[in-house]
Amino acid sequence: MKKVLKTIVLLTSFILISSIDTNAQSKPDSEEPINRKKIHIYFGPSLYSKVTTNFLYGVTNNLYLGVSFRPGEKADSNEFFGLIGSREFEIFDYKKSNFNNFFNLKSQYFFLGNFYTSLDLGILTGFEEKITKYSITQVNNLEILPFTKTTFVSDRYSMLLGIGYRKEIFEHILLGSEFQYGILSAAKVNKHYSFNPTAYNGLPNDIISEQFYDDSYDYKTRRLMRISIYAGIAF
């Protein structure tokens, strides 16, 4: 973690310092403002995340609007069983939908040379998780006790403010870096249980044990910080 963060900070500092130094040496005070290409497409990983694809269009020479997308985790399904005793075992059927796809509406304004401020409004997709358990016992007769737990986690929304540096080199190559800070909203978590109360003589142990563990903390409002280095094309 420290090594990755240190590398990103060093590379960002190198890009900024070298660009500032080059501008100071090569640009006279009377030089005209930078003329940028209309379309910017770039790719870059944020810290601890997958690659994000960004598409921006220059409404003016300084104002860019666009979208970005980062793929989430693939849907998952699995089956497994556990042995409780010589006459009792459990079979589990697990399914989880695709989740954590991240969509952003982006705006960037170049206020000083190649430096810009940014505002991102995004959505992080939720998921549905379904676990079906079959408790099978064989004493006098074969008895199957099905139990299903379905969890729904809603989409979450984010707002990020940032500052970055992006430069067009060799006419069509983009290099840049950005620091963003903001918030990610809480998600609504709904859980549904399906079982036969008569067969279980009341509540199943799975429900009782969950009363002592609250996982809703994982989906509360939290702060976000992103540091990214990216590259792409302009035309």
Task: Walk me through the structure.
By secondary structure, the chain is mainly β. It is 15% helix and 57% strand. It contains three helices and 13 strands; from the N terminus they run αββββββββββββααβ. It has helices spanning 2-26, 197-200, 205-210, and strands at residues 39-45, 51-58, 63-70, 76-85, 88-96, 102-112, 115-124, 127-138, 142-153, 156-169, 173-184, 189-195, 222-234. An eight-stranded antiparallel β-barrel has the order 1-2-3-6-7-10-11-13. It has a five-stranded antiparallel sheet with strand order 4-5-8-9-12. 13% of the residues are buried. Residues 18-30 have low confidence and may be disordered.
Report the structural category.
mainly beta
Percentage beta strand: over 45%
Distance between the termini: 36 Å
Q: Give the fraction of residues assigned to helices.
A: 10-25%
Q: What characterizes the major β-sheet?
A: 8 strands, antiparallel, barrel
- Count of helix runs: 3
Secondary-structure element sequence? HEEEEEEEEEEEEHHE
